[in-house]
Structure formats: structure tokens, C-alpha cells
Amino acid sequence: xxxxxxQLISRRSLLRSAGAVGAAAAVGAKGSPAATxxxxxxxxxxxxxxxxxxxxxRYIFEQLTADEAELLEAIADQLxxxxxxxxxxxxxxxxxxxxxxxxxxxxxSRDAYHSGLxxxxxxxxxxxxxxxxELSHIDQVSVLIDVETGAATGASxxxxxxxxxxxxxxxxxxxQGTFGDPFYGGNQNFVGWDLIRYPxxxxxxxxxxxxxxxxxxxxxNHRSAYDSEYFEKAVVRTATKGxxxxx
Amino acid sequence: MxxxxxxxxxxxxxxxxxxxxxxxxxxxxxxxxxxxPTMSSGRVMPRDYTPDGHNLxxxxxxxxxxxxxxxxxxxxxxxxxxxxxxxxHWLVYGIPATATGLPTGLPILPNTPMPTDLVGATQxxxxxxxxxYRGPAPPAGTPHLYHFTVYALDKTLGLTPGLTREELLEAIDGHVxxxxxxxxxxxxx
Lengths: 247, 189
Known about the structure:
The complex is a heterodimer of chains A (247) and B (189). Chain A is mainly alpha-helical.
């Protein structure tokens, strides 16, 4: 699959930078409302609706419109596609993470997403004569290269500033949503951590575990950092909305 | 007749590029005829070769290669951009001497093979540090010139993929036995 669906950014370079994201997420907080992966999923689904093809409850987007979420998901799928190494950003729920974060810790980026995604759509239609979702794989990659390099910047596209700024923000959030702590809505079923072979947060390490880790034999514990009593949710402050928890 | 300000804008980088052309100091070099089915020197290039369109690499053809040509290289650069100039848009080298041109849309995806008549050819790094073609994206209102230069080399150099323009020019220095170019324009509004 890797050969038939090459990636905009090499998987290796993405994983290299993502390792830092995962690690930061794992050590960034202390004290703790415990949240298992399963209970976390239930937090994502206030309506409890079921999809027809599986029994996973469907997440209802609150900050992004359905069209924006669909576009963002298609972009995320190009950035970190599913391949021989495992599931990608879509399976990790990176867009769910972004939607949730736009209602909280990343609320200041909400307008940037609305205007950026609209500009992105205009750019696809004006340059490739079709919306992103209808483009061929190679045209989707080509569009993303142009947005990433700033070449999509121009009077006719309407990006606020350089298109590369929008790409950089989006890429950063897709990485967070794929490799961050599942507590925040992404990295669902720990697919991001499994991808980079991150064995999970451990508050104490015995020599036996260290030996297993170094031998690559340490099984992942598949626990959120907030499952531990030593961690608590990060508290962020925004200038206009007061104090929010990281969720 | 007074030249228009537009002519000045286009002429300045052209003059600049002629003055600083890296191989301009060499003696009387064989002139290769470089052409394109879709582009001409001094004419606006189709938007499909830019990010305002599909951003495909444009087709090029060439003829009148000097005797003894062993391989070819192609460089696309904008001498009116970059800090310092030029800004590199495209590098292709290791092109077999039997090739008579480049087709539209050379690969941008990794692991995509070159066309069969270009086996052995590879692409170098452009100004965005990417190993494929990216077309003109000049600031609105300023026409730029894009030099597609073809070099004929007297030796098969076996150059590694991913060279920059500077590295390529250094590598082919002393082996260039022919050169020619086509210089279309592009402007954004």
C-alpha cells in the first residue's frame, strides 16, 4: 500500500517529529481524573448514535461543519495515511481531536480553521477545477505541496497570510491528534502510540521492564496518562474565555 | 517607441541573468535548440505549469545536440527571485543522450519511475528543497522569466539524486559541451 499511495511527507519524518509529541503528551501533566480508552470514547459521543457499518458510536462535530470535517479528514488522510505500518490519522480520530480542541484549548484557532479551510477549498476549485475530495491522489498531493510551500498564496485564494502558515498549523494539530494522549479525543485505540511503538505512560519502571524496553519486547499498556493518579489534565487559559481544562 | 514599464520589469532580470549566468564565461558553446509544444520564449506559460493550475512540469523538446553528447541536464530557474537569486524550480539530470525531450508531468511521488526513455534520469532539489518540479508563483503584478536551460555533457557523470542547483552546476563544470534554453514568462494578478 505504501507503494501505491505515497505520502506527502515521508512516514519516517512524520514519526520522527511525532515521537516528541507523544512523549510530551505523556509527561505533560500531573494528578488525575482517570480515563480509560473505553470511557474516553464514551465522552466523545454525547448522543450515543451508532454508525451502520460498525458499532462504534459516531462523534458529532461541534466546532467544524460537516463539510469542514470531511475536508479536514481527507487532508489528514493524506498527511498520515493508513499503510503497511498501521492505521493513520483518520483511524486515530485526529479530526475529532481538532474539533474538540477548537472548543477549548485551541479555540483561538477556530477562525483560522474556518477561513483556512474555505481558502483551501477555493484554491482546489480554482487551480484544479474540483473540490479536494474529488481530486485524484496525485492532485491531492500536489495541492498540499502548493499549500505547504506557500505557492497557493495569492489574491485569488484568500488565505490569510501565507498558505504555508495554515498548513503548518493543520499539520501540527493532525500530529497532536494522532500521537497525543487519547484523553483529548485523538490517538483512538492507541493507534498512534502503537505506530511509533510507544509502550505507554509508566510511573515506575523496574529493571525487568527497562530490559524489555531496550529489547523491544515491552508490551504497550494502552493507558492514558490520566488513568494514573499522578497525572491531571493540563489547565490552559485563554485571553478571552477565561480558564478551561485541556479537554 | 518607448518601452512600457512592463518591458523594463521583464528586461531587468533577463539582463541580470545574462550577466551572472554561471557558464557565461566559457568559450563559444554549442547552441542547443530548445523548444516546447506548449511554451515559447517571451510568452506567458500555460497556468497548468504553475500552482494556479495543476502544477505539472512542462514538456520540453530539444535538437541539435553537439557530437559527443553523453548525457543531458535541465535546470529551471527564476533569476528575478531568490535570496540570493536565482530561485530554482526544477532540476533533472542523468538524462540519456538519446532523449529528445521531457514529457509533461514528471513524477512528484516517491517511488514513481521515470518514463522508459528517461531511465537513469533523476530530479534534484528545487528552492523548496523538494526533488520535483514546482512551477512559478511570483508575487501578484510582477511578471517573472523562467529559464529552462538544457545542458549537453561530454561524460556520463553518475550523479546522485537530490543535488541542489549549485551542486549540479559544480558537478557538470568542465563537461558542458552544449547549452540552450527557452524562457517563458508568468505573472499572477
